[in-house]
Every structure is written in structure tokens, then in C-alpha cells.
Design goal:
Rossmann fold; 20% strand; binds flavin mononucleotide; FMN binding; Flavodoxin/NO_synth; Flavoprotein-like_sf
Length: 227
């Protein structure tokens, strides 16, 4: 569908280290674009001198210390340095889709930093937002945290979805850390059979269905879906 001058504006606002949050938002964006929306991407850059280096390369150089090294700051819900794209300061959006990976059972430092910054209010104030959480298993506190922070900046919560990866606590942790440390998917690690990790095609389908429901709520039903 061609975009019109007054087509609804959607902002994809996220932090994504390995690209999983970006993947689900990109799938959602296909749906918004098919409904005539103008979609703008706003990836947050993590620039904090204490932590950014480890997230500037993939795979991680030394996965356990680099991964565990975020635990104290995350537990204390610390903020750090970030850089945001121009689109965050220049545009006005009707819907903000927030992509939020879980870090140590809560909102990642880069996204928390943005949501607590002075830049967040002009983007969110009076605007509707939807939350897309990606994680291995722990989504509740992340989703609740993003919702609370965005509402504090005047945002109006529409809906949220979470995407989790299969397997129990230990196998899914080993599967993820093996991936973060090597950039490859392995069937076995330290003698244990590993479940798959990261976003898969089913998740992407789910993201598209969710985006359709969010678009119905925010922009009204698509003409083809009206009774
Ligand atoms: C530093 C760090 C801490 C993490 N902590 C958790 C956690 O506590 N619980 C969980 O379910 N997933 C955790 N994860 C897994 C991420 O949520 C998962 O890898 C997600 O796919 C990352 O999305 P991204 O690629 O968009 O950044 C952690 C990942 C990193 C890098």
C-alpha cells in the first residue's frame, strides 16, 4: 500500500546486541507497512566506556566474565551512556514499538537509560506504545519495567508480548552462552544436549499476528478485515 502524507507513523525503538529484538520488530514492521504506516527504526547504541566494548563485537571474547560482569549493574538497575539516532529527536510518532531484551531479569541498561532520559518524554508523552520482550526465559520483570518507565514518561500502554527460548534453566543458559561465546549453534556443550536458542520462524509469525492486533487497536481494523 502506498504511504500517504498523513499515514500513521510507527517508531521501532530498541536495543539489540545479537539482533533478536530487531528480528521481531522487523517482522512486526512488515505488518505495519502493509497497513500503510510509515515505519522508522531507532536502534539505541550502547556507548558506555565501562561496558560498551564487550557489546561492540560478536561473539563475546570471553563470554562468562563479560556476561556475568553485567550482573551487578543490572541488579542495581544502573544507567550508562548511550547514543540515539536523530529520528528520536526529530519525528513524532503515533505508535512506539519498544524492543527489549532481558538482561539479568530486568530491562537492559541501554534501554533503561533511554527510558529514563530527557529524550524519552517528547517521544512517548501522550503516545501509545507496545512492548516486545525477547529473552531466554525471564520476561515478566522486563516487560513490567519497560511499561512502568514508559508510562512515567507519559506513554500509553497498548499491549505487550514476550518471546522465550526452549529448554530448562541450565540447558537454555548453556545454549545461549555457547552461542554468545562462539556465534554458532551447537547441539551439545559441556556434555549436555542443548535446546535451540534465539528467535525462530514461529516467533516471527507470532510477532506479525501481535502487530496486527496492535494495529487494529491503534489505527482501526484493516479494510480487508472489516465485517
Ligand atoms: C548480559 C546478558 C544478560 C542476560 N540475562 C538474561 C536473563 O536474566 N534472563 C533471560 O531470560 N535472558 C537473559 N539474557 C538473554 C537475552 O535476553 C537474549 O540473548 C536475547 O535474545 C537478546 O536479544 P538481542 O539479541 O536483541 O540483544 C541475557 C543476555 C545478555 C547478553
Amino acid at each position: 500500500m502506498p504511504e500517504l502524507a498523513d499515514s500513521p507513523k510507527v517508531l521501532l525503538l530498541y536495543y539489540s546486541y545479537t539482533g533478536q529484538a530487531k528480528k521481531v520488530l522487523d517482522a512486526a514492521a512488515e505488518v505495519f507497512r502493509a497497513r500503510g504506516c510509515e515505519v522508522t527504526e531507532a536502534p539505541i547504541e550502547f556507548t558506555d566506556p565501562r561496558y560498551a566494548e564487550r557489546f561492540s563485537r560478536f561473539p563475546m571474547r570471553s563470554v562468562w566474565p563479560e556476561f556475568l560482569g553485567m550482573l551487578p549493574a543490572q541488579t542495581l538497575k544502573r544507567t550508562g551512556d548511550i547514543r540515539t539516532p536523530e529520528a528520536v529527536r526529530t519525528g513524532s510518532y503515533d505508535l512506539i514499538c519498544i524492543g527489549s531484551p532481558t538482561w539479568w531479569d530486568t530491562v537492559s541498561m541501554p534501554l533503561r537509560t533511554f527510558l529514563m532520559s530527557h529524550e524519552a518524554r517528547p517521544v512517548l508523552d501522550g503516545k501509545r506504545f507496545a512492548v516486545f520482550v525477547v529473552c531466554r526465559r525471564k520476561w515478566r520483570k522486563n516487560l513490567a519495567g519497560v511499561r512502568k518507565l514508559a508510562e512515567k514518561k507519559g506513554g500509553r500502554y497498548v499491549d505487550g508480548i514476550h518471546f522465550t527460548y526452549p529448554g530448562g534453566e541450565l540447558p537454555s543458559m548453556l545454549s545461549l552462552t555457547s552461542y554468545l561465546g562462539t556465534g554458532e549453534y551447537r547441539d551439545r556443550y559441556l556434555g549436555m544436549k542443548l535446546p535451540p536458542t534465539n528467535i525462530n520462524d514461529e516467533h516471527l509469525e507470532e510477532a506479525r499476528r501481535f502487530a496486527g492486533r496492535v494495529a487494529d487497536k491503534v489505527f482501526g481494523r484493516a479494510p480487508s478485515e472489516r465485517p
